[in-house]
TrEMBL record:
Biological source species: Mytilus galloprovincialis
Name of the protein in question: Carbohydrate sulfotransferase
InterPro entries assigned: Carb_sulfotrans_8-10, Sulfotransferase
One Pfam entry name: Sulfotransfer_2
An individual GO BP term: carbohydrate biosynthetic process
Keyword line: Carbohydrate metabolism, Glycoprotein, Golgi apparatus, Membrane, Signal-anchor, Transferase, Transmembrane, Transmembrane helix
Length: 267
């Protein structure tokens, strides 16, 4: 069983399904969220669901967990509701935050080889996963171009995807998307090369972690205290207790000071 910090999981789900170009999911849940939680929203916003904010997303998550379970979405429901840890005995529970060390420990235990050397394996896996994930995300965007352009320009889709890579620490947050317009021959390969060129210059692991932390803090600092308390009480509570994660973000957020850079300035 593999679990993840419930607060990180919600943020990751929001970025993947709402911030990044995802027209099918925009239509499936975005329109509903905007209708429910954005007063005076436009017909286009309700129809497309293309610009849901993190605040609106968390309002939705809290709302459906307590009042409208018919509109729950498995991507955002707590891990314990999927994996039933109180009913099923798992030999291993891995955490996303420490998955490589958990994996190495399990492998050594399973094959009973204390002297097994797999140093550097996590680095190779990270690099291979990064390259594969970059290509997958860019390819998906181009495959959905027709549907995306019903709601936003493809140039904005490219900007959002670029920002998504910055959020993950793939590229430096100060590296702006290098094109002011899209050339006629713009394709998956051209975009991938732009990302990988910028990514290759991003060699500091501390900077990668720093950007990820900035995204997390900025996102949750936008929530009113009452909404954060509702989230902690009705959505994340059981997962944090079962899997031993932090139960509250209030101490973490109390000293946070927002700077001039915003990861969500598109919305």
């Amino acid at each position: 069983m593999i679990v993840r910090d419930p607060f990180e999981r919600l943020l990751s789900g929001y970025i993947d399904k709402f911030f990044l170009p995802s027209p099918i999911f925009w239509k499936k849940r975005g329109g509903y969220i905007i209708k429910q939680f954005r007063p005076n929203s436009s017909v286009k916003e309700q129809s497309c669901g293309h610009n849901v904010t993190f605040l609106e997303f968390i309002q939705y998550v809290v709302h459906v967990s307590t009042r409208d379970k018919n509109m729950e979405e498995p991507h955002f429901t707590p891990m314990h509701t999927h994996c039933k840890p109180c009913l099923i005995h798992y030999d291993y529970v891995w955490k996303m935050e420490t998955i490589m060390s958990d994996f190495k420990h399990a492998i050594k235990h399973l094959i009973n080889m204390k002297d097994l050397h797999i140093d550097g394996f996590d680095f190779r896996m990270d690099k291979e996963h990064l390259s594969s994930d970059v290509i997958s995300r860019i390819t998906f965007m181009f495959e959905r171009r027709y549907d995306i352009e019903k709601c936003i320009t493809f140039y904005e889709a490219c900007l959002r995807t670029w920002r998504g890579f910055q959020m993950r620490g793939v590229i430096d947050k100060n590296d702006k998307f290098p094109l002011i317009s899209l050339p006629e021959d713009f394709n998956v390969t051209v975009y991938k090369d732009l990302v990988m060129k910028s990514s290759n210059a991003m060699k500091s692991k501390s900077k990668v972690k720093g950007q990820k932390k900035e995204v997390f803090l900025e996102s949750y600092s936008l929530l009113p205290v009452k909404l954060l308390e509702q989230l902690e009480g009705s959505v994340t509570k059981i997962d944090t207790e079962i899997f031993n994660y932090r139960k509250s973000l209030r101490i973490l957020l109390q000293d946070y000071k927002r700077n001039n850079f915003s990861y969500f300035d598109f919305l």
